[in-house]
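hi! just following up on the protien thing from before. the input was this:
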Amino acid sequence: MVEKSKVEKVTPTLEAGERTATEVFNELAGADLVVPPYALSPSHAARLLAHVARVEGMGEDDFGQILGVAADLFEYMAAHCARPGRARDLEEQFTGDIEGMMNFVMAYVGALGESKRSSN
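and the predicted 3d structure came back as:
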């Protein structure tokens, strides 16, 4: 009979002055337009993280594909993560600002990952 090994939960500690991913996200313009990452349904969280997994292994030469993934993520967020009645506001917030959109999406995903790790 194989004995179950004990899995120790490791919680990373922050250095002085370092902020959590959630704190970073909450300071971004537009953060109030979406459902907080910790409150996102598991199915929507899984779909967002699946989009991000598509980027793994891509490098500088794949920048166009990375932009496509970020656009897909943002479109998904506007449709499924925006607060009720705020999807259009979210889209308008980043019209013409690709860098801002990418930063917003990645900060949201970072906070999402952080919230899902802390809830386990």
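The longest helix spans residues 98-119.
Residues 33-55+62-119 form one domain.
cheers
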